Amino acid sequence: MLQYFFRRILHGIPVLLTVATLTFIIMHLVPGGPFDTEKKLPPEIVANIEAKYHLDRPLFVQYLLYMKQVVQGDLGPSYKYLGRDVSDILKETFPVSLVLGLFALLVVLGVGIPSGVFSAYWQNSALDRSLVFLATLGISIPSFVLGTLLIWSLSHQLHLFPPALWESPRHAILPALALGLPFAGYIARLTRATVLDVLSSDYIRTARAKGLGEGAVLFKHALKNSIYPIVSVVGPLTAGLVTGSFVIEFIFSIPGMGRFFITAVTNRDYPLIMGVTLVYALLIVLANIVVDMMYAWLDPRVKL
Amino acid sequence: MSRWSWQSRLSGSFLILVALAAVFAPWVAPYSFETQNTFNALALPDPHHWMGTDRLGRDLFSRVIYGARVSLSVGVFTTLFAMWIGTVYGAVSGYVGGRVDNVMMRIVDVVFALPDLLMIILITVLLGRGAWGIFLALTLVSWVTVARLVRGEVLRIKEYTYVEAARALGASHRRILLREIAPNLLGLLIVTLSFRIPVAILAESTLSFIGLGISPPFSSWGTLANDGWKAIKFYPHLIFFPSLAIFLTILSFNFLGEGLRDRLDPKGG
Fold first, then answer.
1. Is B37 a member of any domain?
2. Cβ separation of A151 and B232 shorter than 8 Å?
3. Cβ contact, residue pair A144, B209, below 8 Å
4. Between the CA of residue B255 and those of B9, B91, B145, B189, what are the distances in Å?
5. Residue in B115, B209, B229 nearest the CB of A281
6. For residue B15, what are the contacts with CB-CB under 8 A and spacing of at least 6?
7. Which residues of B lie inside 8 Å of A (Cβ-Cβ)?
8. DSSP labels for B144-198?
């Protein structure tokens, strides 16, 4: 198990390296630099600033310098938020995005799995058909459309929830719904398909034949085997929630990593762009590893 | 072979309608997309302006129709291009097999692990926020899904006895790939096309919505929604109609995809 974990971490390194390199190249190809201002600065000052951040060195040298720094655990100073390190900004904004992501995950699984199970159990009933229809609606609605709809209806019209900011648990409800519900549609459909598949297998027929109650058949026998495919998509799902969250953070003015990423890109704040991208990539790599290990732990048939 | 469901029929008709409106926009739209009339700004929907007017008095209905041009073409052409790359790549990888396959799939794995929306944002900003930037950025992250699918299919198909027969008859690799294997991929590709287009439309509109995508004077539905977002509290119609257009289009492609899958790719259910 431990050996597997370390092997997967090793496999993750080229991914992170590619992300870092690609981002670095793309970022520096973008026209405009971080210190372009409306007013023209005297050339000496520009030269000084560029020297300070090694921007006067060849790109390849800048890359090596940066990578050396990162390996030592230092993400460098932000160019725009003067006097602040990227790690400080991340320390403040990452927990916000993480909490939002976890709330959304709760919505995804809490809505998606039960509705998939009900759908499958009462296959072709009116309930099933409406749940399947709702799931397709969910998949098709962009989270920014759902988000604005929720803000307009529940916040502006009915005043039930605050329309923006991040201060109390009540502030988290609408963003988590907007982020999570579209993905819940996917999970509902996946759960339905898996449970249907499992319910038609021989061992379920045996369980029923020996006179087991329907509750026990469904919850003790069927669900146990249906959970694996769902677990296996939680990895990509986490990735989707994480990268999807910046739209939600934009709409709800949530001070998370995603919103900082958007401003960082428009400001050409190189170290901040790199920092946020690397944290996202690391999170996705780790989520996939954790999910695969959980899979093996849950399902004794899977060997790592 | 199952019959088309009413959802698929309705979706297909809706998409044809939207596509026609987009192509013939100058004839269909009641007004030009840029004519301003500041005396009639921010009007609510009425018989003259079916979707109301924006803060410069431009007719929203006409702008949504012109927006369909941008949104649909970005969605359709990106997907076609990404599918072309992905199909060739996946087919070669699966057909050749062995070490080449291994290396090619490793590359796919790495691209797959990129945080795609972040990459799209970076590339779009790099290429200057036009349709081209979005086109290339979306292609870059979406061809890998197709490559994986096609590779899996080719791996399966190339073991069929009829392919073996072709090989035994001395057919060239090129002929086997193009004449024997490719026709068998067609169903999968059509279904995939229908499911990938809405993904591209979604990505483009999301990007434009947060102000990093298509920029004025050209407007996609996402750009229009972004315009309306600023006035959501008092003029919700400005964001409602573009959002509705995005939602209905994505929904229709998904329903159509399901209908196509039932008919063309019974295994994929």
1. no
2. yes
3. yes
4. 9, 28, 20, 16
5. B115
6. B249, B252, B253, B256
7. 109-110, 113-119, 121-123, 125-126, 128, 198, 202, 205-206, 209-210, 212, 225, 229, 232-233, 236, 239, 243, 246-247, 250-251, 254-255, 258
8. HHHHHHHHHHHHHHTTSHHHHHHHHTT--HHHIIIIIIHHHHHHHHHHHHHHHHH
Query: Domain containing B27 — which CATH number?
Result: 1.10.3720.10
Tell me how many domains chain B contains. Answer: 1
| Those residues with Cβ within 8 angstroms of residue B75's Cβ, 6 or more apart along the chain or in another chain | B197, B198, B200, B201, B204
Residue A215 φ/ψ, nearest 5 degrees? -60, -45
Q: Locate all alpha helices (DSSP H) within chain A, ordered by sequence.
A: 2-29, 43-52, 59-71, 86-121, 126-140, 143-150, 169-199, 202-209, 214-216, 223-251, 257-267, 270-298
Q: What is the pLDDT of residues B100-158, one digit of tens each?
A: 998 898 888 878 777 777 788 878 876 766 778 888 888 988 899 899 999 988 988 88
Q: Tokens 């988290």 label which residue? A: A172
3-state class of A32 per DSSP?
coil
Q: Tokens in use for B251? A: 């929904």
B251 falls within a domain: yes
Interface confidence, given as ipTM, is 0.83
Distance from CA of A289 to the nearest CA of B (A): 12
Q: Is residue B87 part of a domain?
A: yes
Hey, where are the domains in chain A?
92-266
Residue B69 belongs to domain spanning: 6-31+44-268
Give chain B's count of helices (H) and strands (E): 11, 0
User: How confident is the model over A212-230, as pLDDT tens digits?
Assistant: 888 888 888 888 888 888 8
- A265/A254 Cα distance (integer angstroms): 17
A18, A139, A143, A145: best to mutate for the B interface, most B CBs within 10 A: A145
Topology classification of domain A92-266 = MetI-like fold (1.10.3720)
Whole-structure pTM value: 0.86
In this predicted model, what pLDDT tens digit does every residue of A79-116 receive, in sequence order?
A: 777 778 888 888 888 888 888 988 999 999 999 999 99
Helix A126-140 × helix B237-264 angle, to 10°? 120
User: Is B228 within the bounds of a domain?
Assistant: yes
User: Encoding tokens for residue B80?
Assistant: 């076609």
